[in-house]
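Good morning,

Both structures are done.
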Amino acid sequence: MDQNRVKQILSSSADIEVKYRDASVWIDSVKEDGKTAVVHLRGPSEERSEVSISDLEEV
C-alpha cells in the first residue's frame, strides 16, 4: 500500500479492511516519515505497533 491510500483510509468513514501479515488491523496514524504507520489488531487488543506502510494490504 502507499502513503496516499493510507491517508485516504484514515479520513474515510467507511470500514475498510486492512491486513498486516494476514492479521486484520486498524490504522491509527501515519508517521511523519511517510514510510510507517501505527496500527492495532481489530478486536479487544489495544496494543499498537509501528509497521511499514508497504507491508499493509487492503482487502
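Second structure follows.
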Amino acid sequence: MAISLHHIVIDAHDLPGLARFWAEVLGWRVLSEREREVVIGTEPGAPVGICFMPVTDVKTVKNRLHLDLTPGAGPGERDAEIERLIALGARRVDVGQTGTESWTVLADPEGNEFCVVRAKATLIG
C-alpha cells in the first residue's frame, strides 16, 4: 500500500486572503473556495495543493513546520524574490538567526514563518 501527500493544510483567520497571498507567491491559483475551506494548486489534478482551514485562536509561537521556497539561481534572484514577497504582504521575522544563514525567514500576513533559501543546486554536494 502506498500513500502520498495530498494537501499541506494551513490554519487561517482570513481564508480567501491568505489563499490569494500564497497563490500569488507560488504562481498557483485558487482551485476551490468554500466557506470553511479554500484550496490552491497548480491545476485541479495536481498531486499536492495547499488547503486553508479556519481557526479562531491566535498564533502565538513559532511554527513547528514551515515551507522552504527556492528562487531561481541567477545573480540577485533571491534578493529580488524576497522583495517581491514583502511587497505581497510578507515580513521579515527573527526566530533566532545569527545572520550567517543561507536562508531568510519571512512570515505571511497571518504570521506563519517560511524561508527563502538559496537555489537547490548550491545545496547539493
